[in-house]
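We emphasize that the prediction below concerns an isolated chain of 286 residues; any contacts that depend on oligomerization or on bound cofactors are therefore not represented. The input was used exactly as deposited, without trimming of termini.
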Amino acid sequence: MPDRDGYIPGVPCWVDSTQPDPEATLPFYRGLFGWEFEDAMPEGSVQKYFMARIGGGDVAAVGSIPEGAPPLPMWNTYIWVGSADETASRARDAGGGVAMEPFDVMDWGRMAVLTDPEGAAFCIWQAKDHKGAKVVNEHGSLNFNSLATREPERAQAFYGAVFGWTTLVLPGGSMWTLPGYGDHLEEGSPGLGEQMAQMGAPEGFIDVVAALTPIAVDDSETPAHWSVTFAVDDADATAAKASELGGEVVAGPGDAPWTRTAVIKDPQGATFIASQFVPENRDLEP
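Result of the prediction step, given as a token string:
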């Protein structure tokens, strides 16, 4: 797929990691994914925001934890919107919360931090100069975003009201879909739908924008949350490299439908998923 140049409303478009010491985290991701970093903040700024690139294309960022936010390292999901203010209002009306009111980010865009009714936090992005991730679905770049929830029906009502999402139920789990997203993808990659069908993708999969993962009933500790998945060429090699660089392999590598994945924690504690596309796994039980 060609490099992205913007998204449509309702599509996850960017990820960043907030860290207690962002500069100390850079060697880990540089070594793991080959990211090249540039501090995008004005000279003298206390806050840091290191833009990560592959081949000159923006893929993610590593930055300081915002003042007043919980001092927890994490990966954050951003969803493209036409208006941050209107979307924040819709989220409130739908039973969600606004953790950070809409605000301008230099000339890059306008954003807000929202929470769904179960407390899972995510960001919304009204783009100006910054058009989100330019490189996706390649080794070391954004591949997927997923909501872990105990209340899928409540989540469906909320995200449907805020973004117009619907759900596609598959043997391996449910997916969030945005009606018409496939048409948008076809404009940039003619024939994409046919290619997906030939590979065995289920009908409607081209409209998928994210995943919906139920939290196990007997898991009383895991809060509802959004997770970030990066594409990798080799999940086993990535997991081994993460350990070598001071990270921790929390789970896996293990096989799943269409993929082989590992859950990895970076040296400061931010967790993400590394996913290798394995077509031979298409018929595996989840």
